[in-house]
Amino acid sequence: MNQASSGENRAEAARRILSNATRVELDPKELDLTKLGLRNLPDALRFCQDLTVLNLRSNQLESMPTWIKELQALQDLDVSSNQLSQLPESIGALSELKKTESVA
């Protein structure tokens, strides 16, 4: 299997899991969604209330949803190497957030 199709399979698997997150019990503490080509965050992530680490490095994100503030347990957020021009003000509501990587 070549590297491109391996990445596509990983991306498709992640999308499938996240799209079903409201139907299955999925509440990870750490989630690595690096290099999946995501253009936006799946809404199902907002239900991952115990999430402490979210790695979104090297995707195609242009904006972050305002509901990111609902991830109150989040301590480490990496959105570096995306298309983000700014982070939403709602990030400030994340009182547990200790580390944020957002440099393009």
UniProtKB/TrEMBL annotation:
Keywords: Leucine-rich repeat, Repeat. One of its GO terms (cellular component) is cytoplasm. The lineage of its organism: Bacteria, Pseudomonadati, Pseudomonadota, Betaproteobacteria, Burkholderiales. PANTHER family: LEUCINE-RICH REPEAT-CONTAINING PROTEIN, PTHR48051. InterPro entries: Leu-rich_rpt (IPR001611), LRR_dom_sf (IPR032675), LRR_domain-containing (IPR050216). It holds the Pfam family LRR_8. This is Miro-like protein.
